[in-house]
């Protein structure tokens, strides 16, 4: 089905101090709201909470557009050693 392809990348970076998670999909036309601008969905909504969880847990997150028709949503978590 068009628009359903995705790629997941998980990497430990910065000498083991950071975990980076990236999800790339082929829906570059559907960008999520910018970090810090998310609003909770209505209580009876069946979706719309994923990025709220990401924002609550991640040190940083964002969206990188392209190449067309893709986008990558990424999150970084600082690892405690």
- Specify the number of helices: 1
| Proportion of strand residues | 35-45%
Number of E-state strands = 4
Secondary-structure element string: EEHEE
Largest sheet: 4 strands, antiparallel
Unreliable spans are: none
User: How many domains, in number, for the residues?
Assistant: 1
Indicate the overall shape.
Answer: globular
Q: Percent helix among the residues?
A: under 10%
Radius of gyration: 14 Å
State the end-to-end CA separation.
42 Å
**Average predicted local confidence, pLDDT:** 91
Structural class of the helices, strands and pairings? mainly beta
Protein name: Regulatory protein
Region (Disordered): 25-47
Biased composition (Pro residues): 32-42
InterPro entries: Anti-sigma-factor_SerPK (IPR050267), HATPase_C_sf (IPR036890)
